[in-house]
Amino acid sequence: MGTSTSSIRASYMGWITHHYIGRYKEPEWTATDVVIRANNYFKHIFRCGSGKDTYQEQPQVTQGFVKHLGLEAAVAAGLLGVRG
Question: By the 8 A CB rule, do 33 and 22 touch?
């Protein structure tokens, strides 16, 4: 697979934004709901995450991204990794 880590990270952050605060947001989804769904989607598409069927780590986001979207609950639950 030729997809770069930075491209996957950007896509992951875009997916979360799109489904959490974007035009097609899912109003009933909490921060943890959107991250669980993003993680499942990216595990399936890019084989990101943990376990024997993956080849790379789950993408990490910035603290600013977490704060801007209000994703602190997902970080506290261990569902969303923050880099740096």
Answer: no
Helix axes 5-20, 31-46, angle to 10 degrees: 140
Write out the two tokens for 33. 């709901």
Contacts of 27 (CB under 8 A, 6+ apart): none
Q: Which of 78, 79, 80 is nearest to 66 (CA)?
A: 80
Strands (E) in the chain, as ranges, are: 60-61, 81-82
**CA distances (Å), 48 to each of 22, 25, 29, in order?**
23, 23, 22
Listed by start position, the domains of the chain span 5-82
What pLDDT, in 10s, does the model give residues 40-82? 988 877 765 555 655 567 789 999 999 999 999 999 999 999 9
